[in-house]
Amino acid sequence: MFLRPPTDIISSSVALCEAVMHMRGDFLAEELGRLARNLLGSPFGSYVAQDSLGGAADADAGELIPTNLEGLVQDIVCNGQHYGRYAVWGRPIYDAGDRQHLASLATLTANLLQMHMLALRTTHAYADIERQLSHQTQILDQINESVLTMDQTGYITSWNTGAERLFGYTALEAVGRSILFLYVDEDTAFHDAFMEQGGQVMEVRRRKKSGDIFWASMSLAPLKDVHGRPAGLIAYLSDITERKRTEEKLHELAYRDALTSLPNRALLTKLLDQSMAVAQRNEANGCVLFIDLNRFKPINNALGRRIGDELLRQVAQRFRAALREQDVVARLSGDEFAVGLFDLHQHFEATTVARKLQAALVEPFMIEGHHLRVGASIGISVYPQDGADAETLLRLADIAMARAKQGGSGDDESVAFYSREMNQDMQERMRLESDLRHALQNGELLLHYQPKFEIGSNSMVGAEALVRWLHPQRGLIAPADFIPLAESTGLIVQLGEWVLEEACTQAAQWMRAGLPPFRLAVNVSAREFSPSLPSRVAATLDRHGLAPCWLELEITESTLMRDIERVIDIMDQITALGVTLSLDDFGTGYSSLSYLKRFPIDTLKIDRSFTTGIPEDGNDCAIASTIISIGQQLGHRVIAEGVETAEQLEFLRGAGCDEVQGYLFSKPLAALPFEQALRESWLPER
Ligand code: C2E
Ligand code: MG
Ligand code: MG
After folding, report:
1. Is the distance from CB of 182 to CB of 211 less than 8 angstroms?
2. Can you give the pLDDT at residue 295?
3. What pLDDT score was predicted for residue 29?
4. Model pLDDT for residues 137-189, shown as the tens digit of each residue
5. Peptide bond connecting 615 to the previous residue in cis, omega within 30 degrees of 0
6. 380 DSSP β-pair partners
7. Closest of 326, 425, 342 to residue 383, by C-alpha
8. Between 37 and which of 45, 279, 429, 651 could a Cys-Cys bridge form, CB atoms 3.0 to 4.6 Å apart?
């Protein structure tokens, strides 16, 4: 047997590895043949690759080894896969050891060739994938659209060149951030619904890196993982700002008056119909004002169109400025305008607005050196009484406007409702309003006083000042008939000032007359409850040399429903003066109990509507008892107003009420009879 040293075997193996890794084709075949020859010390030997064997896979050794020579043949096989054949020959003899060596070489060769092939295949596969990925990225980057993907929580997972161009952020800056950083403030909610639905096309506003906001058309498609489970979203976006702009321009042309930029008739009709749908749901009132300018036509004819146009533009500006943002003002044609008001509590509020519009025209217009004066005749139709669609309301308001113009005969102040009743109503109110203005100046107002009694001690502890109007023709008018009017016209502020002044004057007289001090309560309405009130109260007390223990202010729950913090601040300033506060008509408003404990209130006044039902009406009894216990819990005194019967008094006494006021004790009285009754029977016995 031919003996080979181990280093020889090792170096053969290393050489074999090298050959398989680095050589191909004939070179490889040549090297493998050489290795076989070396390993077996044969004069001849070769390797034949499987493809060169062709159909001769099972050809016998005779075909490789000359017939007259000794030799060995060995197939190179691994896991049933054939990789060719080794043949060696030319030695005088080959034994079992040689066969064994050649077999080992063949096994090693087969294993190496197989591994190498697998490695090659994988490398090709990777190269393929890389190529495909690169193609796809190129395609994605070539298209103009911006394409981005995000995971299920809205974090960006990929970002193409289109997205870089559109948003101005590079992929490096965008990937990994929440999609919300592209949103415009108003719509930062990430909609979960997108996750499930996908495939939607929508128009959205987004923000660029530069801060610019643009319109984009966006469609979303669900992104799935290899198992088909939702993994996120693909978003396709394209800039549609240009299209939006064109649409807006078209909209402007169709719905705006070119001269004044106000909505035109078509847009007004749309907006009115929309507002009415909302008003219907909220059971609210609304109205349409039809405005026709007085003296516009002669100006236009005399001074020409250019000046006429400028005048209309300025009128439009003044109207717009006189109205609140939610009110709609439109130009219908020529010198006709219309206004829609849809959050009215009562129809007569429309007259206040009509007057405002007329007042806006009082100041003359200065155009190209001309002093121009125009007025307005205004007709009003009311939703839902007169009609429930824009066309009808406009038509009826137009009719009312014509009536206003006739009736007014050149008067700039002419306003008319379409409905005759409302017209009468309005005229009545207008008369009353102008009378009330005079009443304030002519001293037609006076105060009546109604005592308040403490139940426990049976003594008079205070009085409420209640305003009365002694009208020269109509006689005595109750506050219910003029306080709401004073509130809606703003006259309440002057009226309130008068009442406070008068009450303090009277209290000072009683003080000087030697009467023991008692709290004189003055009603203050919500409009009066302004930051200037505390200093006005302080100054009034000062002027009359009155101690603050003489004064109390009654405020209603509606006052508290305004800006709470501001109200509390004003209240604190008043109580700091030593003047007490009571909460009038308690139970009729919607005071939040959690706020109630923060108000520095001395007394809760149970509204007369609850006292009336006592003791027959179980609900009224329950409400009165509840108010009393709330007052006790919060450390406030409780007074019941409108007590007319002994039964009511008994119930209230039993429930723990502190004070009472009502006809059972006394009606409100003029100052003199009040003072008399006070001296004769209400003062505690000395
Ligand atoms: P109020 O402040 O709740 O006044 C109580 C009203 O109940 C008064 O009506 C009073 O005359 C009436 N009254 C008192 N006891 C009885 C009774 O036993 N039975 C019946 N049926 N009525 C009783 P008045 O004087 O007509 O005043 C009505 C409302 O007008 C007042 O309600 C108050 O909110 C307001 N008011 C009166 N004077 C003024 C004022 O000077 N300024 C302001 N802002 N509002 C005032
Ligand atoms: Mg009161
Ligand atoms: Mg009351």
Report:
1. no
2. 92
3. 93
4. 888 888 878 999 999 888 999 999 999 999 999 999 999 999 988 988 655 55
5. yes
6. 289, 417
7. 342
8. 45
With tokens 């009277």, the residue in question is 506
Please report the pLDDT score of residue 331 as a whole number. Answer: 97
**In the 8-state DSSP scheme, what is residue 455?**
T
Phi-psi region of 642 (alpha: psi -120 to 50; beta: other; left: phi over 0): left
Name beta bridge partners: 581. Answer: 553
Distance CA 148, CA 173 (A): 13
Angle at Cα 556 formed by Cα 655 and Cα 666, nearest 5°?
60
Can you give the pLDDT at residue 52?
81
Q: Which two tokens stand for residue 590?
A: 């919607």
Closest ligand 1 atom to the C-alpha of 608?
Answer: 7
* Calpha distance 599→635 (Å, rounded): 12
The CATH architecture of the domain made up of 443-679 is Alpha-Beta Barrel (3.20)
The size of the chain, in residues, is 686
For residue 522, give the ligand 1 atom closest to its CA. Answer: 41
Query: Which stretches in the chain have pLDDT values below 70?
Result: 1-7, 54-62, 185-199, 408-413, 590-591, 684-686
pTM: 0.58
| Contact (CB, 8 A) for 150 and 233 | yes
Q: State if residue 559 touches ligand 1 by the CB under 6 angstroms criterion.
A: no
Q: Retrieve residue 539's tokens.
A: 């100054």
Q: Matching CATH topology for 144-244 and 256-423?
A: no
All residues with CB under 5 Å from ion ligand 3: 584-585
- Residue 61's pLDDT is 47
CATH level 2 (architecture), domain 256-423? 2-Layer Sandwich (3.30)
CA–centroid distance, residue 588 to ligand 3 (Å): 10
Quick one: fold of 144-244? Beta-Lactamase (3.30.450)
